[in-house]
Amino acid sequence: MRRILIGIAAAAFVAIPAAAQPPRPSEKIMDYAPAIDRTADALLNLDLGPILDAADPYRRHRHRTLRDMARRDDPDFERRMHANIYGTAAAMGRAADAYAAAEPALRRALTQFQRDMAAAMAESPPPRGHPEDRPPPREREDGDPWGD
């Protein structure tokens, strides 16, 4: 009995930090996929008959949903549409995970770029004129960033 309690305590000790970690971006995206799937399914039930009747009043269109129109040319349309929704969500999730993994390096690179730009802006501008006529660079003593 003691071993079982120790095992349960150890499992809880390991599971708590894992549960406390924020979900990966791909998990968040995949959580939205069923809602997008249901929304697309509801959109397929949209009856376009009255709109088509208004656009072409001399021809009766009766009940023509987007689903009816899509199935007419492709009987496998719905299966492919649903698969495409989840496939796209998975691809977007992989891209979001890759970006999240690269974010610290991108942030460091941007910070370094900002420092380099600030240092470049603080330097005196290059002298004008022909290179042979330029005076040698001088030391800045007065703290003026442009050396004037």
Say how many strands there are. 0
Largest sheet: none
Please report the distance between the alpha carbons of the first and last residues.
Answer: 83 Å
- Average pLDDT works out at 80
Give, in order, the helices and strands: HHHHH
Low-confidence stretches: 4-11
Describe the structure.
There is one protein chain. The chain is mainly alpha-helical and 148 residues long. Helices cover 68% and strands 0% of the residues. It has a domain at 24-116. 1% of the residues are buried.
Task: Please sum up the structure shown.
The chain is mainly α.
Itemize the secondary structure elements and their pairings.
Elements: H1 2-20, H2 25-44, H3 49-55, H4 66-73, H5 77-122
Helix pairs in contact: 2-5
Please supply descriptive tags for the structure shown above:
148 residues, mainly alpha
